[in-house]
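Weekly sync, protein design subgroup
Attendees: M.S., D.O., the rotation student, P.L. (late)

Item 1: inverse folding check
M.S. brought a backbone from last month's batch and wanted to see whether the design step gives back something sensible before we order anything. D.O. pointed out we never logged the input encoding, so this time it goes straight into the notes. Structure tokens as presented (398 positions):
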């Protein structure tokens, strides 16, 4: 069995949020054929309790603490160096020394980085393994440019700078590595246009989902206090695109829905809600729960999953989870990119406020929309299992 240096910007366990779900399943997939030497950051104090669990899949685990405040202070160095802020933010001297020890001592056959920022630890050509692969996940530089459009100066300038400098770094990474992966074809197409010199190295490897875990056939205790109609939005609520979506829906769409359905309730379920998210909890009928131990009961007993993303890159796990739970889902095109669901067969698509409200009401009032959830569940079980999706990585290592 060969050795692999596996680097991740966040501990891949437990797989309880978007990036950790993908990184954990990739790690578990690689562990079938490689001895994994894992280096990662921990930014949530509660995640330190799970370090030993990773030894089931890894022969060596090195963790580095990531304090967000000190990370932002370190990032200021990038204004002098011309680098993206993300590079010093995700740099740790002890982690760098550990990587050198693995590269020199173990001489792994493969170096793999989950997110391009982690590639900074193995871009020394004198220590280059036989294969170097980076999972970009999505075109993060473009996401920063999207953020900039919603911000006023000086943050608009900072975000524009980050988008520009991060693309420059991602292009350098693209030239160095053997292969790069993105979660969806639209991400591949965009990066190939932005970095044409690396176009032939870039591949689409989609997310999967554990359809047995996210199953509508189990009994789940109802987490809701009453029988009023329930709309559900899930995700990490300190992630700006999720914040924007939840606030937009609560302020612009939910009042229109409440005019038609006075007792309707909107639940925002996910960890680390920002002050902006906590403020919408004051709206009558809106509930911000914070972190919950299990999302499945909230999906199982909700009436509609709403995914009103206006800023998004890559695949939205919240859409896959709702589909796996056979839940009628209303989403924007931003949330659907990279998912092979067909609107009006598997879910409903709406990009404007009035259309989104109309589709949500349709899911609440038209019993035939339950078939959307059944069709979505069938699609997940046919095409979106993790083994089926991650087999593409095996070809990249061959």
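Designed sequence read out in the meeting:
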């Amino acid at each position: 069995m060969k050795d692999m240096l596996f680097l991740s910007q966040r501990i891949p366990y437990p797989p309880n949020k978007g990036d950790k779900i993908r990184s954990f399943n990739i790690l578990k997939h690689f562990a079938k054929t490689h001895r994994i030497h894992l280096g990662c950051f921990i930014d949530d104090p509660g995640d330190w309790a799970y370090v030993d669990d990773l030894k089931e899949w890894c022969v060596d685990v090195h963790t580095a603490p990531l304090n967000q405040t000190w990370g932002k202070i370190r990032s200021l160095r990038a204004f002098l160096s011309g680098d993206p802020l993300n590079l010093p933010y995700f740099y740790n001297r002890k982690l760098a020394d550990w990587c050198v020890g693995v590269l020199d001592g173990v001489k792994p056959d493969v170096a793999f980085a989950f997110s391009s920022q982690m590639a900074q630890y193995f871009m020394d050509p004198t220590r280059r393994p036989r294969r170097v692969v980076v999972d970009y996940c999505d075109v993060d530089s473009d996401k920063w440019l999207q953020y900039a459009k919603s911000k006023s100066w000086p943050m608009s300038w900072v975000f524009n700078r980050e988008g520009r400098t991060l693309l420059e770094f991602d292009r350098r990474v693209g030239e160095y590595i053997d292969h790069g992966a993105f979660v969806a074809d639209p991400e591949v197409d965009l990066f190939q246009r932005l970095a044409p010199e690396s176009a032939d190295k870039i591949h689409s490897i989609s997310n999967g989902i554990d359809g047995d875990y996210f199953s509508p056939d189990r009994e789940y205790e109802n987490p809701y206090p009453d029988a009023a109609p329930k709309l559900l939005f899930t995700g990490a609520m300190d992630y700006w695109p999720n914040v924007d979506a939840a606030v937009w829906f609560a302020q612009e769409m939910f009042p229109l829905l409440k005019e038609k359905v006075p007792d309707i309730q909107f639940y925002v379920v996910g960890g680390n809600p920002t002050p902006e998210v906590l403020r919408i909890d004051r709206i009558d009928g809106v509930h911000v729960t914070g972190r919950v131990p299990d999302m499945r009961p909230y999906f199982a007993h909700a009436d509609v999953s709403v995914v009103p993303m206006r800023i998004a890159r890559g695949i939205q796990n919240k859409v896959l989870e709702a589909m796996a739970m056979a839940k009628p889902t209303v989403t924007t095109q931003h949330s659907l990119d990279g998912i092979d669901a067909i609107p009006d067969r598997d879910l409903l698509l709406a990009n404007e406020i009035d259309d989104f409200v109309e589709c949500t009401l349709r899911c609440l009032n038209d019993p035939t929309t339950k078939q959307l959830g059944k069709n979505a569940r069938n699609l997940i079980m046919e095409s979106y299992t993790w083994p089926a999706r991650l087999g593409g990585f095996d070809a990249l290592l061959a």
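Discussion: The radius of gyration is 21 Å. The first strand starts at residue 2 and ends at 8.
Action: P.L. to compare against the previous round before Friday.
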